[in-house]
Each structure stands twice: as C-alpha cells, then as structure tokens.
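Researcher: Checking consistency across runs. Here is Chitin synthase export chaperone again:
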Amino acid sequence: LSIYVVLQIVLVLNTLDDRWPLGDILFGIAFYVIGQAILYIFSVRICDTAKHYIDGLFFGTICTLLAVMMVYKYWDSITKEDLEFSVGSKQNVWEVRELLGEEEYSNQGGY
C-alpha cells in the first residue's frame, strides 16, 4: 500500500499539472488509517458502549469503503475521458469516423 501511494504521488508531482489528485490520495490514506485504528484499537470500547449490538468492524469497514471510493475518485480525476456518462448515450466514443484509404493504409506499413 505504501509503495502504491508513493508511486501515485510521484506520478501526480512529475506528470500532471493539476495538484488536486493529491487531496484524493490524502483523504484515502486518512480514511484507511482511521478505519484500521477503529478496527484494532477502539473495537472493544465501541462494542461495550453499544452493548454488543455493533462493534468496530462496522465502522472500520465503512472507513475502508470510503478509502476505496477515494481511490476511484483519484483515478477519475487523473483520466481525461469521461466514460462514466457515455454508457447510456447514443454516441459511441470509440467509433471510427473515417476509414483509411488504400494509399494511406499502405503508407502506414500495413500488410
């Protein structure tokens, strides 16, 4: 996990002009750390306080879910195409508009 985070920070700092994805990474790390702390440190206290109706696993899982959602948000913020909203549309994003002619195809190194 730490290698992934370091590599993504290097990616944002070296290749992207926008620094907003760093916030997505930091929120994801924060949610993950909070979820693990709730799960391993505060689970018994939460369980005793709630009279064994709920324990730290519930809140830890919610925080882990939020961390995974931040990974998706990070990915969505660094990609250019907006494929999420092109699913229901009539227009095909990947449609080939013009075919290459014979001359252009032979210049491309085709067989």
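Researcher: Does this match what you'd expect to see?
Model: One thing to look at in this run: The longest helix spans residues 56-78.
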